[in-house]
Amino acid sequence: MKITLSWLKDHLETDATLEQIVETLTMIGLEVEHVDDRKALSPFVVARVIEARQHPDADRLQVLTVETGSGSPVQVVCGAPNARTGLVGAFAPPGTYVPGIDLTLSVGKIRGVESHGMMCSERELQMSNEHDGIIDLDSDVEIGSSFAAFAGLDDPVIEIGLTPNRPDCTGVRGIARDLAAAGLGALKDGDTPPAGGEGPCPVNVTLDFGDTDPLCLGFALRGVSGVVNGPSPRWMQQRLKAIGLRPINALVDITNYVTFDRGRPLHVFDRAKVMGDLVVRRGRKGETVEALDGGEYEVNDDICVIADDNGVESIAGIVGGEVTGCDEGTTEVLIESALWDPMNIARTGRDLGIITDARYRFERGVDPAYMVEGMELATRLVLEMCGGTPSEPLVVGYSEPERKIIRFPLSEVKRLTGLDIPQADSISILDKLGFESQGDGDTVDVLAPTWRPDIDGKADLVEEVMRIHGINMIEAEALPRTGSVNTRILTTLQIRTRKVKRALAGRGMMEAVNWSFISEQEAALFGGGQAELKLANPISADMSDMRPSLLPGLLAAARRNADRGHGDIALFEVSDIYKGDASGEQHRAAAGLRTGSAGLEGAGRHWRRTTTAVDVFDAKADAMAALEACGAPVGNLQVERGAPAWYHPGRSGIIKLGPKMTLGAFGEFHPKTLDAMGVSGPVCGFEILVDALPDPKRKATRTKPPLDLSSFQAVHRDFAFVVDKSVASGEILKAAEAADRKMITAVNLFDVFEGASIGEGAKSVAIEVEIQPRERTLTEAEIEAIADRIVDNVKSKTGAVLRG
Amino acid sequence: MSDLEELERAILADIAAADSEQAIETVRVGALGKKGAVSEKLKTLGGMSADERKVMGPAINGMKVRITDAIGARKQELHEEAIVERIARETVDVTLPVRQSPLEAGRIHPISQVVDEVTAIFADMGFSIAEGPDIETDYYNFTALNFPEGHPAREMHDTFFFNPDEKGERKVLRTHTAPVQIHTMEKQAPPIRIVIPGKTYRCDSDATHSPMFHQLEGLVIDTTSNVANLKWVLQEFCAEFFEVPSLNMRFRPSYFPFTEPSLELDIQCDRSGAEIRFGQGNDWMEILGCGMVNPNVLRNVGLDPDVYQGFAWGIGIDRLAMLKYGMPDLRDFFDADVRWMSHYGFRPLDMPTLFSGLSS
């Protein structure tokens, strides 16, 4: 909402400065977003060309002698074709910044002749695009006076970011009322006496909604005949231009002016173009209307229209029709002021995609009590500017609005804000805002003004008192502490989320935050793409589906980084993935990715180690570290084949806790996945479900179990087994551990070897077993017995034989 | 006697000539070993007369002691020489670079870091952390929060919708974290003090708007909390979070359907330079919206607004991060550019706490 200072002062008697007004507006909830004090044009003065003569060295230039109103006349070189002796225009002295050419003038020589300033075109002053010649004014304008003041370009413009609850402030008068209540002056009388009229309105109006909900809550119409519709007066044009509107003709400008002056949208029909009477009704399928905005719209029975015998002439409360619009030829006008259902206007505007000043006001709720008076104001302006004879007003389907009554205990102000102000002050603030208090005592009945549809209950009244009294009058007061020391406040999932992030970052990985939505193709590639997870209005086609996995986002990030020349990176993300649209189907996942040579030790070549590409075991180590950080019992996890299809089937695995619970998967990616994602080179990754892990058991005490150390030295034995290549090494480790659960305390796989010496299809797996005696040192025979059991157990479980 | 002297001279010469620990050992065995020259001499004492022994005994034993000492001394000498030589041989170029620790290379995203900072502050004020789903029903995102159906306030939220289900209901991506207020109040009886960090979504994209962003919602419900307490909580939070000695703030009235009265909080700052500075300058920057929980919202969760009251606020986490740490463009937060993460990210051991400072 834009207003000008002079316009505001039409409604507000005040001595306040622009600064005070701006500051107050913001502090009472009408946030000022921008102020243009329009000082930029203050150096420009009205000046007269005393003499214009040909430039001695240039055919197209003239040398002017200009009377500027101060000092002796100055010499100006000018190229405008309309420059002539006697012309009165806008002069800029040296040192002036000229906005239209983005230049600060200095005294210069043009083809050898000195020029002391400039006579300007409208474009140079950013008044219009006019640049065929310099500004050419009537000769009676005072020489030396401010050009900006003459042209109405010095009226400061204040732009307010209006909140949707304040339709009353979509008019200058509502803003003035708020300022007056805040003590910045007095609200002037704004009542418009009826304009009277002769004879009935020339066109009849019926509201026809049959047995459907009426979409029109009142309709006022008046004809004015014998009007002359030329340009509106300059002051009106200047105000409209200042707030960003384009003056069209007096009748149209008047409707726009009242829209912004009172927050009351109006419409004018050219009587001569209306066929028969007007009917206000629902639109009918197939009907169309050419609107004043140049568009053609199809209506339906959810849209309220104003129709005549020719069909739809106007989309009610939103935009008028082209056919019956007013132009310079209009001699008979119909002025419409109506009330529309706000919800219906909002919906129609949204469905048709039309944004107009009328829609903006009607959908927020115009003052129902001002419907007829708005028409009277417009009538008076029409008579004043266009002449003519008014008819009697016609009012259809309207009933006086009822005012909402709120029972208001004045103590609510203190209860909700902490402000301790006298009850009379609260009542006085409400009075100034147009509320009416009835009764006295601690609780009063407050009648809300008809222009405040936002006022609903006690809390709204408290807000009115608070914002006008001043929020800064409220002293901050400490929130009482709840206890002496705050206890643990995070949930297990939140703690795990924090830990796994820090653990992965501690492994040299960088945390990414990727979009929750990805392309349909990527979603389908990673097991998603369900209909219920597709956005109806995605911001772009590649952000259409809720992600089923964090990996596509990370792979896309890896591709972008590689495109920038960073092909060895380690990324992770800990965030949510979506398996369905129910709240239980959103899961917290942790995923990571390594590309190129970005292993745990770092990326790139290094003199101590040959560079190796990342592989499935880097991903496995990351996955295990992530699970460990989440508190998973890493010793009890099982790793198996069977990772999802986006992984390389031979170089990936899943991690399970027990036979049924899968915690995640890791591995290198399927070559097809990488192709589809546009990623090349070695890439490995993992994804675990942080919320799949069961909550840890709450223990009664934090005491750790006693440390049980044996006083006997542990014995280490190495075994090398030859086994079929397809046998999982994990099975050998498991079988060795199971050989003696009491004595065997560790099994470490230290070598895997395949080669001709082992035989086709076989591999050698070497393990070191730690045997820990508990009660006494073991004899050689006892150790041998355990070793035999290890060999037997491994053989029976895996078919492995001791390597000879 | 002369052959004894001759022998001693010869052995001492061998000792002196020995140039390695192995050579000296050979000399020792040749002289003092079982069959060594000196041992052989000692064996001859048995066949001597008492008088002869009186003379030869001390002579031979004296020689043995001297030779033993000489061997020991030479051995020590050679051992030290060997160490010197070994050190020379083992010397390396210590200027060769080592790998950076992964702890130094890894990064925590500024959003995670700021959430941890905020958590530290509100934990101290007695708040818990709540969370809720990103995909919401219209009821939780709007209706329960007093956004009437079709109200223009809904239009302020550029909402992402899902396709309607069989019943014609369409879910939304939550446009704010406020729905978690409703979930919390439905589950938990007052008193309530929670903050809710989370992802939020609006169809909007430019340097300061992103289709996905992060919010921190706060909610206090009890029987006494009012605007004065709200001001205190947010003033304390801002001063603590921005870690500046002084911060000028102003609250001004605003409008949110789910609060009444509603306020916005601005921070005074200087935006004239390349970076924003707080505690100086003439500009005001809006940083959050807040207010007293609207009585209709309380009614919607079955709380009597004449008994219970409280306040709520919502603040952009990404915006907090940008203001505090100076990232110029919100879109970079979601680009996963390793150069950006390396520059603006945090090391994994930089854990924000109040006792060690939020950012050290």
Structure description:
The complex is a heterodimer of chains A (804) and B (360). Chain A has 804 residues and is an alpha+beta fold. Chain A folds into 6 domains: 2-38 and 156-187, Phenylalanyl-tRNA Synthetase, Chain B, domain 1 (2-Layer Sandwich), CATH 3.30.56; 45-150, Nucleic acid-binding proteins (OB fold (Dihydrolipoamide Acetyltransferase, E2P), Beta Barrel), CATH 2.40.50; 205-396, Phenylalanyl-trna Synthetase, Chain B, domain 3 (Phenylalanyl-tRNA Synthetase, Chain B, domain 3, 3-Layer(bba) Sandwich); 407-473, 2-Layer Sandwich (Phenylalanyl-tRNA Synthetase, Chain B, domain 1); 492-692, BirA Bifunctional Protein, domain 2; 715-802, Ferrodoxin-fold anticodon-binding domain (Alpha-Beta Plaits, 2-Layer Sandwich). Chain A is built from 19 helices and 42 strands. In chain A, strands 30-33-34-38-37-36-35 form a 7-stranded mixed beta sheet, sandwiched between helices. Chain A has a 5-stranded antiparallel beta sheet with strand order 6-5-4-7-12. Chain A has a 5-stranded mixed beta sheet with strand order 15-18-21-22-23. In chain A, a hairpin with a 3-residue loop joins strand 22 and strand 23 (319-320). The relative contact order of chain A is 0.06. The mean pLDDT of chain A is 92. Chain B has 2 domains: 2-90; 105-344, 2-Layer Sandwich (BirA Bifunctional Protein, domain 2), CATH 3.30.930. Chain B has helices spanning 2-17, 21-32, 37-44, 50-90, 102-105, 110-124, 138-141, 152-156, 179-187, 227-242, 295-300, 317-325, 338-344; strands spanning 128-129, 135-136, 172-173, 192-201, 212-222, 249-256, 259-270, 277-278, 283-293, 309-316. In chain B, the strands form 2 sheets. In chain B, strands 1, 4, 5, 6, 7, 8, 9 and 10 form an 8-stranded mixed beta sheet that branches. In chain B, a hairpin with a 6-residue loop joins strand 7 and strand 8 (277-278). The interface between A and B is large, with 99 and 92 residues.
